Fold:
Amino acid sequence: MADIVSVRTLLREPDSYLGRSVVVNGFVRTRRDSKGGFSFMEINDGSTVKNIQAVIPAALPNYNEQVLKAGTGASVSVSGVVVASQGKGQSVEISAESLIIHGFADPDFPLQKKHHTLEFLRQITHLRPRTNVMGCVARVRSRLALGVHNFFQSRGFHYVHTPIITASDCEGAGQMFRVTTLKPGEVDFSQDFFGKMAHLTVSGQLEGECYATALGQIYTFGPTFRAENSHTSRHLSEFWMIEPEASFMDLAGNMKLAEDFIKHLVVCALDECSDEVNYFDEKIAPGLKARLSSIAISAFKSITYTEAVDILKKSGESFAYPVEWGSDLQSEHERYLTEKTFNGPVIVTDYPRNIKAFYMRQNDDGKTVRAMDVLVPGVGEIIGGSQREERADVLEARIREMGFRPEDYAWYLDLRKYGTVPHAGFGLGFERFIQYVTGLENIRDVIPFPRTPGNA
Structure:
């Protein structure tokens, strides 16, 4: 009986399958017919960016009625013997002995053999996974998601599922989606489904700290939501966040963990998604592979925010956003530091307290907090994190200063009241990282179904 084999396996182990009977299931990418009495059919099953060619003889009983009507997009099962290819571009092909057509594609199938812009593909998110570029993105996402778990599990971190619905505003920006069963105009939240105002989470960090203070080291990996009316190529309304948190870890340990994590995922992409990285390097972002290879072996530089501002001010560069101490660094500033000053990744620490979240540990200068942002060439910030404030009185004062009610964070303050411990963590937006390893410029192209203002 013939083996069912994926195109990826067949092309990676051609010598193992030469002369063997196989079955390949997939979709027709192209078909061209020869006057010599056979057709060449390129088939892709989604396992790799590459196609397998099947040579279909006209002697097959369904050749005229079906094979000659199986155009781009048709789903097929081809059975035959693997033989050495006579053409260029592939080592083996399938000499077909039978071809089953499971479903023809109507002539108006939008993904014909021509160049399609990414903007066009965003209009057909249900079909775009069948393209080379989106297939590559999906495989990279899948493999790197496993890489995330492998990294933390191998270091003794425990995977924790934090709530999607929360009553706590982690970042304090107020850009949250409200979850309610109240009718429009009703404002008595005691009558609402949860008995209080509730929102979709912007971060699992606060709840993650509960388990970090119990289990030592944890990480979350789940969806987060931001009700930010932004239409830039860097923002989504729904995206996935990875947030490790560790007790007895300070800012230096946090920085080391972040550097190791990025390098692990980069090596994972280079080693286990090599076909996809090569595709992106050739088609999307020339030089991508060299940039990733450099990151994998680079020692990350470290500077303070104050030093970064000084470098930017002395650069002589004309930035769209002025550089002033106390203002947040913009993407153009971050990229200047990584691409022109250091020519590699850099970690910026000790940001002004007034531009950072309430939970970050305050430094003794009263002006800065033990925060860190990891910046990489081509993207800018890819990780944001901090050492957390473990002193209950300082934390409560900061909560009040931010205009929050301490009683809403009583449970969070309890973590400091009952056996407080130094701890730290960070957040990495999974889509932002996928952008980085694929070279794609728009974040809408690295998530299966982008949710953005005006688009769900």
